[in-house]
Task: inverse folding
């Protein structure tokens, strides 16, 4: 029953109590035959109607909706208590037509505007003693039949093993772990059994498409396993979102953030090889340029210094002004590109 039904009940109670008061306080205005026979069809118009109305308007009592009182012929709406019944009852809020749902009762001198949002209510204790809002009903008395494929291809994803001693079926794998975590996250209990899709010889009793059809024919309630989501299977079952990614990946150790991290792949042998090639480049250019280029002439120490200077300075700028032959510039670029790449 809603709140309007509750008010109607209190109104009927007010009419009944007003009628009793008229009969006890004003017996002279009632017809004798009506009072004795209680036949409402014999009631005639009299001054009892005004007295009866006055008694109704003066009704004051505590009904199931709270305090009952009429002002100018209209019911004064009172706050309705919202009660949480769990091992007793506790008030979690109030409701009235003007303010809607509020966490506190609106008093006559209370000027604060109460929010109609149910978030202002006190916490509700739901069946089971939890404060979390239930997401569904407990599947009591029913155990879900969860079909699993029997395959040895990807045992990390799904694996079915029969224990010969206890004759129990042990189902493990990543897909099973995801399914169990999803069930644990629910706010209600779900009982289930893993049913292997196998024949009398312990082998898989068909293809993956046949396993999907078992759900369609309601032999299984669901299927857990390494089942590929393809278009032709959508006509028979609904799939969860993919939670596996079988692309090629690389597993690397976690390292600290360092600005010199790009130097990690460069080992000592590689540094020595790069330095040797730069020196070799300088020697080749010196051998070609020395007969005609004064920059590569002088004392032995100056020539050796020029070889090292030319080799390592090629990292930052071009040496076209030092070289007399374009072939040398092409050779330097070719050697550097192959060394650095």
Result:
């Amino acid at each position: 029953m809603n709140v309007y039904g509750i008010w109607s009940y209190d109104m009927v109670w007010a009419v009944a109590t007003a009628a009793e008061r008229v009969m006890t306080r004003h017996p002279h205005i009632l017809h004798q035959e009506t009072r004795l026979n209680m036949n409402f069809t014999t009631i005639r118009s009299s001054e009892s109607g005004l007295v009866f109305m006055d008694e109704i308007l003066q009704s004051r009592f505590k009904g199931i909706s709270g305090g009952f009182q009429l002002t100018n012929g209209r019911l004064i709406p009172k706050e309705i208590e919202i009660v949480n019944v769990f091992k007793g009852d506790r008030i979690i809020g109030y409701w009235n037509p003007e303010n809607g749902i509020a966490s506190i009762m609106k008093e006559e001198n209370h000027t604060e505007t109460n929010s109609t949002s149910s978030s202002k209510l006190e916490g509700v204790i739901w069946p089971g003693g939890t404060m979390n809002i239930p997401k569904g009903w407990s599947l009591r008395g029913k155990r879900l039949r969860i079909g699993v494929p029997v395959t040895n291809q990807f045992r990390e994803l799904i694996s079915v093993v029969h224990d010969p001693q206890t004759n129990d079926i042990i189902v493990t794998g990543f897909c099973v772990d995801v399914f169990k975590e999803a069930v644990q996250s629910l706010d209600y209990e779900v009982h289930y059994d893993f049913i292997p899709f196998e024949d009398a010889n312990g082998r898989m009793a068909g293809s993956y498409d046949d396993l999907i059809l078992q759900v369609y024919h309601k032999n299984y309630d669901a299927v857990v396993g390494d089942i590929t989501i393809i278009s032709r299977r959508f006509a028979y079952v609904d799939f969860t979102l993919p939670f596996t990614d079988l692309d090629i990946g690389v597993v690397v150790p976690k390292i600290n953030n360092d600005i010199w991290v790009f130097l990690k792949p460069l080992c000592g042998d590689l540094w020595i090889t790069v330095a040797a090639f730069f020196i070799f480049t300088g020697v080749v250019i010196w051998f070609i340029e020395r007969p005609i280029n004064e920059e590569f002439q002088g004392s032995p120490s100056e020539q050796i210094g020029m070889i090292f200077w030319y080799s390592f300075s090629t990292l930052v700028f071009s040496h076209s002004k030092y070289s007399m032959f374009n072939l040398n510039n092409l050779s330097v670029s070719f050697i550097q590109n192959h060394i650095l790449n």
